[in-house]
Amino acid sequence: MAESSSSSSSPSPTEEIVRLIKRLSAYVTFKMSGLFSTSIRNLVLSLDLSISISKSPFFIASVIGSGGGFGFPMVGISRTDSRSIGAIAGLAIAVIFTWRAIRTPGRPQRRQPKRRMQSGETSNAAAQSNLASIPPDVTSPREDTAVQDVVDQFFQPVKPTLGQIVRQKLSEGRKVTCRLLGVILEESSPEELQKQVTVRSSVLEVLLEITKYCDLYLMERVLDDESEAKVLQALESAGVFSSGGLVKDKVLFCSTEIGRTSFVRQLEPDWHIDTNPEISTQLARFIKYQLHVSAVKPERTAPNVFTSQSIEQFFGCT
User: Fold this and answer.
1) Transmembrane stretches, by residue range (predicted)?
2) DSSP count for the chain of H helices, then E strands
């Protein structure tokens, strides 16, 4: 509370300046009045002295001798009084100008008038504004087409290789068993093998990729030894054994369908490929995955049995 009362009673800087000027004015007034009274008194004494001197005989003789001029020094205000008057007058002038400087508010700055643009400058500015308003990505149709072609080529999705597709489809399976009739060979029955054996050319690429990543076994039911020899000769002529992934010892033959089922169960592959739906149904409980190849898509017998019209179609080669 004491601090607030003291701060409210303290005078502002403007009030202090006003009080100082009032004191200076009173001091100047006092000094001027004393000065004028002293000067008047001295002036009266000087006049009396001049009158008395002019009446004396010496003054008349001096005037006559000098040719009408005054030969005596003029008596006036002393040198000290003139200095005091100058100092007081200068102080008064300084006080007046200081007061006017305090009272006069600052003049507002004059706003500089905008320079009118000439016609040439106006047109150039308009052209620049139009260029600035155009988006930077706007180009000609030819440039857009060329750029789009480059972008499409650069960001074109990479097509997976057949080996990648095979591994993905087989779910990284390491052992595969496959029937020959209707899958690898054009023939579809053991009776046809007695006459001729033809390897399907469209399946060779997929077959070779499977041998690179998996342990592949081929098996089929035949009626005689001659059919077995014909099958091995056809596979060798087609280049199935040239890659080294598949050898003749992994081509198995039997005389019944049950024998093929036994082969599969003994080998315990990750995948088995067959065309007989009955065998696929029987092996569904023992084999992890199966591919049933059939021209007519049958009903799915088990969740781990997949169907396709051909082995190459299953792996996306057609």
Assistant:
1) 58-78, 84-102
2) 13, 6
Token pair recorded at residue 269 = 């592959």
Structure token pair of residue 131: 């260029």
Length of the chain: 318
Map residue 218 onto helix, strand or coil.
Answer: strand
What token pair was written down for 223? 């009626």
Name, in order, each residue with C-beta under 8 angstroms of 2's C-beta and a sequence gap of 6 or more: none
In one-letter notation, the amino acid at residue 266 is Q
What would you report as the CA-atom Rg of the chain, rounded to the nearest whole angstrom? Answer: 65
| pLDDT tens figures, 229-277 | 999 999 999 999 987 788 999 999 999 999 999 999 999 999 999 999 9
Alpha helices (H) along 75-197: 79-103, 119-133, 141-154, 162-169, 190-193
* pLDDT per residue as tens digits for the range 118-131: 544 555 555 555 54
Q: What does the DSSP 8-state code read for residue 220? A: E
Say what the alpha-carbon torsion angle 137, 140, 146, 147 is, to the nearest 10 degrees.
0
In contact, 176 and 170? CB cutoff 8 Å: yes
pTM greater than 0.90: no
Residue 181: its H or E element: none
Query: Residue 134 burial by CB count (10 A; 0-12/13-18/19+): exposed, middle or buried?
Result: exposed
Residue given tokens 């009266």 in the structure block: 44
Closest CA to 305 of 287, 214, 295: 287
**199 neighbors 185 (Cβ within 8 angstroms):** yes
* CB-CB contact of 202 with 311 (8 Å): no
Name the residue among 205, 206, 218, 209 with its Cα closest to residue 177: 218
What backbone phi and psi angles, to 5 degrees, belong to 146? -65, -45
pLDDT of 271-295, one tens digit each?
Answer: 999 999 999 999 999 999 999 999 8
